């Protein structure tokens, strides 16, 4: 099938299409655990949704994390680099029949697998009409591929942005097709320093999602340039390359698979505030783990930093929180320091010692008690 956009295909794109369209036939053909690096255990409602995905689709899954943000019912979602569609078929169940999922990918052979299994999944989910559309196109040219500006509530992506030679363009396009208040929630591979040309030009390393990994500090910079809120780290896990030849080329560079959330919200000078989560989000009735710093227990007061206060106020989460002015002085139980939240390597190393689900952010107390006086 001819490409539907006039976006110029680069040599890198051709190599990646070959890698995912011809070289790899199944998940076990991968040479590193960059793709498929598990970042955290899957909750039950997601495991149940995944169980309904056809094995021919999951056999060609090459993601590196879990890309299921909360509060998705009725949402319009876009999956950048959907591959054979595993995440699209899972999310189709979470948005429900009234929601919609669009998957875009440049590799036709992967999309063929996804399209071939559309009817199977719609019957399996009991839907009268499909709530998924698969589009062939480039993630650097979303509007050219026919996707409308300001039309998606959430964009997800699972181990794809690293494969693009034009990452700023990907973020810019994502920002443009998101609605105001929308979220880009994505899992990808990051390096501990900027990678040299020798690594970037290595076709297998690039194809394995390592050669094109961004230095995580460059993601923070790019997000700001494009107009997103500062990235919030959700989770991270160390990636290992168990191949001596590739290890020799990589030397001391280290890699993590990390999930970040970026929001399209108005710029301003956000102020910290106290918030109370109402416990109404499906799958997060007792507590909502928002990122690696903040877990909101239902009905408890939590002081959040200004950035997060702005995100909660302007995004789809606004209806699930009550907002209050901050306490006068928050002393030791106040807003958490940012350093750990920004460095996925530090977080990934800490992960085995302290499970993310056991941490709570800000200062907590019951709804009726006063916080940090
Ligand atoms: C590592 S696989 C991940 C696929 C899928 N997200 C999954 O979890 O199985 C990368 C996918 O991204 C697609 N891809 C890479 N670069 C792309 C680009 N610039 N535009 C569109 N698709 C791209 C590839 O064709 C491939 O299907």
Using the coordinates shown, work out and report the CATH topology of the largest domain.
Answer: Rossmann fold
Ligands bound, unique: S-adenosylmethionine
**Main sheet: strands, sense, barrel:** 8 strands, mixed
Overall SS class:
alpha/beta
Tell the overall outline. Answer: globular
Q: Total helix count?
A: 14
Q: Tally of extended strands?
A: 14
Give the proportion of residues in helices.
Answer: 25-40%
> Would you tell me the overall average pLDDT?
87
Low-pLDDT segments, ≥5 res: 353-373
Please state the second-level CATH architecture of the largest domain.
3-Layer(aba) Sandwich
Rg, Cα atoms, Å = 20 Å
Count of separate structural domains: 2
Strand content: 15-25%
CATH class of the largest domain: Alpha Beta
Between the first and last Cα atoms, what is the distance in angstroms? 65 Å
Sequence of secondary-structure elements: HHHEHEHHEEHEHHEHEHEEEEEHEHHE
Give the full name of the CATH homologous superfamily of the largest domain.
Vaccinia Virus protein VP39
Task: Write up this protein.
- Pfam families: Methyltransf_31 (PF13847).
- One of its GO terms (biological process) is arsonoacetate metabolic process.
- Belongs to the methyltransferase superfamily. Arsenite methyltransferase family.
- It comes from Hippocampus comes (Tiger tail seahorse).
- One of its GO terms (molecular function) is arsenite methyltransferase activity.
- This protein has 373 residues and is α/β, with parallel strands linked by helices.
- It folds into two domains: 11-263, Vaccinia Virus protein VP39 (Rossmann fold, 3-Layer(aba) Sandwich), CATH 3.40.50.150; 273-366, Ribosomal Protein L9, domain 1, CATH 3.40.5.100.
- It is 29% helix and 21% strand.
- The protein has 14 helices and 14 strands.
- The protein has helices at residues 11-23, 44-51, 55-58, 86-95, 108-116, 118-125, 167-177, 197-200, 203-207, 216-226, 244-250, 306-314, 339-342, 344-350, and strands at 76-80, 100-105, 132-136, 152-158, 178-191, 214-215, 232-239, 255-263, 273-277, 287-289, 295-297, 300-304, 321-324, 364-366.
- The strands form three sheets. Strands 1, 2, 3, 4, 5, 6, 7 and 8 form an eight-stranded mixed sheet that branches. It has a four-stranded antiparallel sheet with strand order 13-9-12-14. Strands 10-11 form a two-stranded antiparallel ribbon.
- α4 links the parallel β1 (76-80) and β2.
- The longest helix has 13 residues, at 11-23.
- S-adenosylmethionine is lined by residues 13, 16, 20, 35, 61-63, 81-83, 86-87, 105-107, 110, 138-140, 158-160, 163-164, 209.
